[in-house]
Inverse folding.
């Protein structure tokens, strides 16, 4: 398997903790298999295999797509709520990892701290897949770039403007854009930047020439107490009809430009207007669907050869 050599000694297994774990070759293999599974959704690549899914935050897309995906692949998914497993409280993360590894072939985890995902990965002897932490959301990014590839054959040099918080979704997307040659720009209010990317504080300037405009909620899960301040801070960063028309004015493509993306769930008329999310530029439900196909390919690549 093509883990980055510098990560191989950290983990004894092949995990998807962050996009940084994936080589370009492996991403390419995942995408080839994604296309195959999208065309043939009932191919049984994981008969008799089981995953445990630990969700310490709410989820619609991630949870359902992993469970349905595993079923379609011929395997089974066991759902564990935070209350049921109480990782780190009822027993240590290491002991949860070691015990689950004796029962299942993979562990999917959605939690708050990235360190919790990392600890689970360090102690598990089966692959661990990060289904979102406060820091990263690699499965989302993999589905997003796959969706862009479906819409635009050649993605090298495309300009993607992420309008919003320099948070988990933006971070993983930036990491994958870097690997795949997409020009990523984060446009956010001061104080919401993230590392390793081009930053703009001016929405109307940032979207000029954008092929893709992406947004996410201004208040992520776990940040609810900051919601009032965030609403105010992000008010000028809404993806609305005016912003989309500025980007479009500078592109001359026969297909809708810019593509408008959102990981969902959306807070309509906060970070994105109803009109834009329902417009022909919007590909948000294609993204949501591709979570299923891409994650199936990830599971087969990580768990299939064992
Ligand atoms: N985009 C995403 O991860 O959606 P859920 O939170 O519903 O899983
Ligand atoms: N940034 C959002 C993404 C939800 C899929 C959150 O963490 O709540």
């Amino acid at each position: 398997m093509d883990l980055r050599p510098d990560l191989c000694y950290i983990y004894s297994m092949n995990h998807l903790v962050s996009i940084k774990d994936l080589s370009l070759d492996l991403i390419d293999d995942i995408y080839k298999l994604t296309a195959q599974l999208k065309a043939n959704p009932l191919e049984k690549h994981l008969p008799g295999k089981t995953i445990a899914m630990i969700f310490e935050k709410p989820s619609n897309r991630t949870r359902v797509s992993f469970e349905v995906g595993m079923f379609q692949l011929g395997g089974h998914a066991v759902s564990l709520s935070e209350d049921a497993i109480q990782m780190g409280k009822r027993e240590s993360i290491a002991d949860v990892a070691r015990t689950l590894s004796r029962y299942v072939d993979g562990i999917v985890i959605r939690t708050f701290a990235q360190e919790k995902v990392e600890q689970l990965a360090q102690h598990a002897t089966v692959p661990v897949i990060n289904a979102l932490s406060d820091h990263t959301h690699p499965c989302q990014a993999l589905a997003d770039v796959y969706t862009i590839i479906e819409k635009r054959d050649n993605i090298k040099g495309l300009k993607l403007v992420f309008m919003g918080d320099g948070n988990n979704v933006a971070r993983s997307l930036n990491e994958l854009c870097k690997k795949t040659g997409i020009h990523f720009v984060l446009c956010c209010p001061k104080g919401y930047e993230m590392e390793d990317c081009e930053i703009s504080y001016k929405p109307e300037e940032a979207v000029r020439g954008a092929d893709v405009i992406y947004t996410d909620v201004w208040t992520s899960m776990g940040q609810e107490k900051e919601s009032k301040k965030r609403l105010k801070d992000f008010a000028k960063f809404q993806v609305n009809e005016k912003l989309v028309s500025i980007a479009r004015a500078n592109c001359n493509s026969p297909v809708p430009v810019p593509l408008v993306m959102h990981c969902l769930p959306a807070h309509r008329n906060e970070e994105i207007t109803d009109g834009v999310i329902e417009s022909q530029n919007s590909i948000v439900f294609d993204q949501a669907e591709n979570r299923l196909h891409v994650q199936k390919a990830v599971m087969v690549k990580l768990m299939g050869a064992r």
